[in-house]
Every structure is written in structure tokens, then in C-alpha cells.
């Protein structure tokens, strides 16, 4: 299959279905290369629906990369820089408040001050999340006894008036004070200030749809669209849709709007359990 040698050919565009015409397309590309003719082809060879493409260079090789979501470019580096600066400053400012909270937990309940649990993070990496303890020390063991009382759909577990929550813990949860130690996770790089909430391994193992798992393509956060849209009052499917909305429309401006909306949501205690 020789390339036309008699007529002007500025470039060749290949749009053959590669699955059935790979040998033909490969031969056309090779013959065009021999004659120095520009070859173009459609990059969407896998017919992906929601991703966008970008050409990147890796050790001298040009690669076509598929990205799903809007989180790429210099804004991602700026997001991480802001995470480090803000979490570091916040930890210094909140240090006296941490001591008061820790004292209140110790005086009202036996057990450790912090609750440490393995969660699923960026690209399904596991990490240990830090929170102020709001439940009795053996709360995770008692959860199996309460599974039948679960009041939310999907793989997550939540019940109103959970008997495992301590008196001080209820206040900490209502005002989201229990989440503050996650600033350490942000500083370490396990989390971001804004992003889908990190889920326990138990909840992740209950996922039945692959599109739900796309929420792990970005760093989990302390606050998110779910946090400012009702939290525990939001159905699981709606929660997942809000996470996808965040990933697909992310920008630094969106992060700022979520942070600003988080403050009144916390003060109102909307959806807190």
C-alpha cells in the first residue's frame, strides 16, 4: 500500500478502527514516516467517555495521557502549597484549643485522647487518620452489634443517637471539633483541606460500583461538597455524585467557596451526628 507519490500530500490523517485495521494503519504510518509526511490520528482510540487527553514527555518519550477530572496543572501544586501553609499555621493557632479538648476527653471518658483509624486515600493508598475520640474505647468492636440499626443507604454506617458516643464526643461532633487533628494528615500529605471525605476500609470494601471509586483519584479532604450539603442527611448516591461534581469541576476558587460554606454549616450543626 504505497503512499501516493504523484500528488501533493501535506499530511495523512488515520481514522481507521485500530482493533480491526491495526496492521493497515501501522503500515500507512510507517510509509508516511519514510517520506517525511506528517501523520495525524484520532487520540481517543479507547472511546473513553469522561476523560480528557494530554501529551506529556517521560524520559524522552511522548505519551498520550488520559485524565479524568479537572485536577491537574500548576493549580494542583498551589493547592498542596496552601495545604501545607494553612494546616501548619492552624495547628499552631489551635494548639491551646487542642489541650483543652484533650483534657475534656480525659476527664469524662477512659481511653486515649485520639482516635486513629486506617482509611483509604489517594489512589486507594491506606493511611492512618487522626481524630479526637468521641466514642467509647471499644466502639469499633461494638459496631457489629449495631449493624442492624444502620439508618443510611450504601456501604457506610451511621445511626442517630449512637449509644457509643460520649457526652463530650457529641459536642465535638456537632461542631466538627473532632476533625481538627486531621490537620496533621494534611501537613503529612495524606489529605488535603478540601476533597472527598476519607472512608474507612470497611466502607470501601462495600462499594459495588466502580464509578464510586473515582473519588479516590484525588486526595481526601477535611471538608467537601458533601460536608456543606447536609452531611449525614445526604443519601449515599447523592454523596458520591457530589464527589464526582467536585472532581470534574475542581478549581482553587471552588475550594475557597467550599471552605467559606463550611463555617456556617458547622455552626448550624447541619447533618452532624
Characterise this structure.
By secondary structure, the protein is α/β, with parallel strands linked by helices. The mean pLDDT is 87. The chain has a 3-stranded antiparallel β-sheet with strand order 6-5-8. Strands 1-2 form a two-stranded parallel sheet. It folds into 2 domains: 58 residues, no CATH class; 195 residues, no CATH class. The chain is built from 8 helices and 9 strands. The radius of gyration is 25 Å and the shape is elongated.
What is shown here, in short?
The protein is α/β, with parallel strands linked by helices and about 270 residues long. It contains eight helices and nine strands.
Distance between the termini: 70 Å
Supply the number of helical segments: 8
Radius of gyration (CA) equals: 25 Å
Count of folded domains: 2
The percentage of residues in β strands lies in: 15-25%
Question: H/E order of the elements?
Answer: EHEEEHEEHHHEEHEHH
Strands of the largest sheet, in order across it? 6-5-8
Helix content: 40-55%
**Biggest pleated sheet:** 3 strands, antiparallel
Task: Please give the number of β-strands.
Answer: 9
Gross geometry: elongated
Structure classification: alpha/beta
- Low-confidence spans: pLDDT under 50, at least 5 residues? none
Mean pLDDT: 87
Amino acid at each position: 500500500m504505497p503512499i501516493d507519490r504523484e500528488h501533493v500530500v501535506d499530511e495523512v490523517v488515520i481514522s481507521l478502527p485500530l482493533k480491526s485495521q491495526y496492521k493497515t494503519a501501522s503500515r500507512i504510518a510507517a510509509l508516511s514516516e519514510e517520506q517525511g509526511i506528517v501523520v495525524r490520528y484520532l487520540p481517543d482510540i479507547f472511546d473513553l467517555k469522561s476523560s480528557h487527553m494530554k501529551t506529556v514527555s517521560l524520559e524522552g518519550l511522548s505519551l498520550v495521557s488520559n485524565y479524568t477530572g479537572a485536577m491537574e496543572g500548576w493549580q494542583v501544586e498551589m493547592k498542596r502549597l496552601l495545604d501545607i501553609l494553612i494546616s501548619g499555621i492552624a495547628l499552631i493557632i489551635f494548639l491551646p484549643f487542642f489541650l483543652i479538648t484533650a483534657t475534656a476527653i480525659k476527664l469524662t471518658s477512659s481511653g486515649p485522647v485520639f482516635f486513629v483509624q486506617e482509611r483509604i486515600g489517594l489512589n486507594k493508598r491506606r493511611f492512618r487518620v487522626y481524630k479526637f475520640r468521641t466514642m467509647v474505647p471499644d466502639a469499633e468492636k461494638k459496631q457489629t452489634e449495631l449493624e442492624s440499626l444502620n439508618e443510611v443507604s450504601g456501604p457506610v454506617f451511621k445511626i442517630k443517637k449512637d449509644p457509643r458516643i460520649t457526652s463530650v464526643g457529641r459536642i465535638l461532633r456537632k461542631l466538627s471539633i473532632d476533625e481538627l487533628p486531621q490537620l496533621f494528615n494534611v501537613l503529612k500529605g495524606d489529605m488535603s483541606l478540601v476533597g472527598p471525605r476519607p472512608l474507612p476500609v470497611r466502607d470501601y470494601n462495600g462499594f459495588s460500583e466502580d464509578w464510586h471509586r473515582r473519588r479516590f483519584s484525588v486526595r481526601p479532604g477535611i471538608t467537601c461538597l458533601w460536608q456543606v450539603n447536609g452531611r449525614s442527611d445526604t443519601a449515599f448516591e447523592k454523596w458520591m455524585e457530589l464527589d464526582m461534581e467536585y472532581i470534574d469541576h475542581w478549581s482553587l476558587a471552588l475550594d475557597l467557596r467550599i471552605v467559606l460554606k463550611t463555617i456556617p454549616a458547622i455552626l448550624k450543626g447541619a447533618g452532624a451526628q
